[in-house]
Amino acid sequence: MKKHLFPLFLLLLGVNAHAQQDFYAITGKDTQAIHFNDFRVIDATNGTSGEKVFTADSSSKIISQTRRGLVAEDKNSFNNAQATTIAALAYDSSNNNLVYIPMFSSNIYILNPQTKEITLVENNVVRVTSCDINSHITRMATGYDGNIYAVNNSGTQLLQISKKGGQYVVNDLGIIKDDASNGKNSFTTIETGFGGDMVADADNNFYIFAASGNVFKVSAKELKAKFVGKIAGIPDNYSVNGSAVNAQGKVVIASAKGAPLYEVDLATLQAKQLPGEQNLHIYDLASKYFVNDRVSSNSNTLTNLDIYPTRVDEHFVNVHVNNTKVKGNIKLNVFDMSGKNVMSETLSVKDGSLDQKVYFRGLINGAYIVSIADESGKVILNKKILITK
């Protein structure tokens, strides 16, 4: 029953030596109840397991953020970094860390996959009890703004985990309620809305995949969950326990019940089975990708004109032009989300070609719109970026 309702922990990554580690998962043992086994890398294209990053039997070094030192945890309790009930995971690509919360605990853990060091973030904001299914944290994802978000089963707590001054801070953003149009497909009831996982889009909305296969779009500003539809193309008894966006913008889903991975087109909610392992027990998935990350806000955008990456952690973006219709000097403007112009730069295009790095100086972390205008002043490209340096 628990596996039907709740996710597990898995790390998704390519299995060959050249693959980038950007897809993660929590896997569990082949048991009827939730039983954490490891964080591992998985190839989301081939549906196969890769490196095990950290296991239930690994030696652990836990550092308390509050007490600023090493702590010893009771391995027989729900409040430890290797608890059997780990079921919610996010990948913080800005710091290359895995962030997770045991399902029956209020503790938040930050795992460095390279050093295996774990930071314990104790907090009084998360109200979780082992006997209250409604309170269990089962969905986590990194938002496009760089913060980590988590939601409990019943939607009564939407948590934001941010890093300020080197310390992790937890805020409760409030209660998520059903949109009036949801009808019988309620976000806040066990049969239709509990369990599963969540992904984020480039506008910092969230898509929550319930264990039932229902999908809800959640606005963090309005705190409403709108029923989008039910996934088609998966077996009737498939419990959706993990979800993450792949490099192609599709959502990969996984089950804790021992099943293959599926790739879901979010526009149609049609799923197709991925090749590879057929008996994976996955409680949760996480990746560095976002829905609609590369979609321009300008429908008249010229071809062969781009700004990348959209997630900036190295102080610059690349501006690429390969279009003879673009000539002379072009103007690059950067606007914050209030519409204020915070940076301008003139770039020179020769023979319709340009490949240039544009460095951001003095811009704080956050979301911005980068706009490029031609010599006449006509905007030919808008691109939303997130600075996380």
From TrEMBL:
Keywords: Signal. InterPro entries: Secre_tail, WD40/YVTN_repeat-like_dom_sf. Pfam families: Por_Secre_tail (PF18962). The keyword Acetylation does not apply. It comes from the Bacteria. Residues 1-19 form the signal peptide. Gene3D superfamilies: YVTN repeat-like/Quinoprotein amine dehydrogenase (2.130.10.10). Residues 307-386 form the Secretion system C-terminal sorting domain. This is Por secretion system C-terminal sorting domain-containing protein.
